[in-house]
Structure formats: structure tokens, C-alpha cells
Amino acid sequence: MKKKFVYLEVEVKNGKYILKDVTGKVRTDIYVRDIMCQHCIDNSQCIQYDIETGRSMRKDMALFNDMKPKEVEMEASNKIEADPVLNFIHNESVDLRPKTLVMPDLKWKYLVRSAMRGKNIMMTGAAGCGKTMAAKRLVEALERPEFYFNLGATQDPRGTLIGNTHFKKEEGTTFAESMFVKAIQTKDAIILLDEISRAHPEAWNILMTVLDQGQRYLRLDEHQDSPTIEVAEGVTFVATANIGNEYTATRAMDRALVDRFIIVEMDTLNKEQESGLLKDLHPGVTQEQADNIAEIASMTRKEIKSDAPRITNSISTRISVEIAGLLEDGFELAEAAEVCIYPFFDEDGGVDSERTYMKQVVQKYCGSTEGEDIFNAEGVEEEAEMNS
């Protein structure tokens, strides 16, 4: 194991030896013999203190000076401590990230910082990797007003984002503004635009001025007077998008629209991360069950990236979580696979079909050896490893 050292400078004050670390902090928690302190002063040396063993060694003073924070670093550190917003982003935000949100510290802090600075954020990543969950956890962490709009599900972009006109015999034509209009006028609101990559192009056109930092307005052209609504101070837009050829229901987004966002890419979990997440979300499953689900999901992700993949879909984290929920409720893995895994894989081709291949994989973790000629899972994962 690599030892950890503290480097100390020795000063004399009122006849006593004072030890300071590279940040200038006086270390009263560290004891070094007076004779060694004096030798350091006489020879222009510093002290290398081993915090594991308590042993001290004299070293060249240049080593201490090289480890001192640079002036720019000290200024940045002081600025963070002095600014409540920066202090929250760098020191407090990580503690607010839920345990069930598996996301690197850097990306989480970037997400929080972007929201607090009123940036437009686009969450990207594979389907079912936790984009929407991350956005919702951000809202919870910051305790901001929240509005949710599923742009992929709406068939009436103008009605959803602007509003509708209605005719009543007694009142004539009236205009009813949308909830989106209220949302953009709510100070410090976080507005979630889910599945923006599936939205109708007209929705993108409407959002162009809303998302542009130099404009930030929405024109209610359905209204009789066509008023212009300004986006309130502190409003943050968080969009989720699936980008790639495998998402056939998505549209290629206009570059002008994408450029209005900063991108936060969600990572696909590895086996250990996914297994840990399943245990956190469904503590009733055993560790072995969580590991098996994560292994199956990981294998599909490796296989689909191989040179000659035998499947066209992979198991998302969302599906893994659903399987874990079934196992926690007393279902067997084979039963969970029947309803959660196999429907996503084509059964055309008989013994060479995608579904047969997945049955081979799943059966390995069900502990069954029946049907070895068809469902011989030996080497399935090894083949996937070789092809990846």
C-alpha cells in the first residue's frame, strides 16, 4: 500500500518550534522531536511525516516548496470557500446525490453547477440508463419548482408549448395558455423536456427562442394580441435525448437546437455498479441474484458491440431494475426473463434466433442443465468476450 506523507516546514516562534504544512496550516496534531526540528532549520530542510507510522525524515526544502499550492490554486480555493454558490457546488452537492443515482462526482457537480447557473442541459446516453432519473434527482437536490413535459408523447406541439384557442357561443374566441407558459414564468424553475429527440420539429422551432440565451422569450402567436413572454430569471431547461441510429423513432435534431444545450452524457453501468444499484433499490434480492442480473445485462451490452453480434438489443438498467423487482416479489429468474427479457428479442430463425440465444444465456444463471444441445450456455459469455 502506498504510504501517505505530510510535508512540514519548521519555524521558531517564542522559542518554540512550529510545524506548518504546505497549505500554511499550523499542525499541532503532529509531534516531531526538537532535535530534528533544529536540524531542519540548520540545513534548510523540511520534514516528511508518515501519517501511518508516525516516523519523520528530513528532506530537501525544495520538495516542500514544489508541493505548495500555486497562487492561482489558493485564490480559486479561497473563492470557493467565500462564495456560497461555489461552495455548494464543490463541497455540498456530492452529499446530496442520492445513493441510487450512480453517476461520477465530476458529472454530478457539472450537472448541479449548470442548473444553478441557469444553463440549458441535455442528458444523453443509452435508453434506460437513468437520464430522466438524474434530472428528477437534480430537482430534489436543489429543491426548485419542477415542471415536466414529455415532448416525445405530444401530438400537438403548439397546444403543449403555447396554448389553444377555444370558441364559445357566449364568449366568442378565447385563448387558454399552456402549462409551459406558466412554467417559463416561474423564477428558478427546472423544466424537464423529456424525449426531446422524439419531439415534432415544430416543437423544436417553438423552443429556439426560448432556449437561446440571447433571446429567452416565447411569442404566444395563438393569442389575439400575440404577446411575448419572457423566460423568468434562474429558469433551467433539462432535456433528455436518445442519439444514434439504433433509436429508430428519434429524429436527427437540428444542430442549432443542440448547440443551445450543454451536454451531460450518462454512462452505462458496469457489472459491479449495476449489481450495487439493484441491491439498493431492491434490498430483498440476494447478492447472488443481483450479480446474476447484472452479469446477463453486461453480457448483452458486450455482445451487441462485437464484430458479429448475435442480438440486436441489449438489456438496459431499467429492465434490470424491473427484473430485480420481480425477484424480490418471489418470482424466479426464469419467470422474470420470460416477461422482461425475451419479448425484446426476435424468435425468428428457430435455434439460431436471438431469443434462443438469450435463453441460452439466462439458463446458465438458472442452474438448469436440461436441453444442452439447444441451450448449452457453456462458453456463451466467453464468446461474447472474444467478440467484443
- Percent range for β-strand residues: 15-25%
Anisotropy-based shape: flat
Q: Roughly what is the average pLDDT, rounded to an integer?
A: 83
- Assembly type: single chain
Largest sheet: 5 strands, parallel
Q: What share of residues is helical?
A: 40-55%
Taken in chain order, the helices and strands follow as EEHEEHHHHEHEHEEHEHEEEHEHHHHHH
What is the CATH class designation of the largest domain?
Alpha Beta
Total tally of structural domains = 3
What would your notes on this structure say?
The chain is α/β, with parallel strands linked by helices and 388 residues long. It folds into three domains: 5-67, no CATH class; 83-265, P-loop containing nucleotide triphosphate hydrolases (Rossmann fold, 3-Layer(aba) Sandwich); 271-387, no CATH class. It contains 16 helices and 13 strands. The protein has helices spanning 34-42, 61-67, 71-82, 84-96, 105-116, 131-142, 157-161, 179-184, 201-211, 255-258, 271-281, 287-304, 317-328, 333-340, 354-366, 380-387, and strands spanning 5-13, 16-20, 45-50, 56-60, 121-124, 146-150, 163-168, 172-177, 190-194, 217-219, 228-230, 236-241, 262-265. The strands form four sheets. It has a five-stranded parallel beta sheet. Strands 2-1-3-4 form a four-stranded antiparallel beta sheet. A two-stranded antiparallel ribbon has the order 7-8. Helix 11 (271-281) crosses helix 13 (317-328) and helix 13 crosses helix 14 (333-340). The longest helix is centred in the last third of the chain and has 18 residues, at 287-304. The chain is flat, with a radius of gyration of 29 Å. It starts with a strand and ends with a helix.
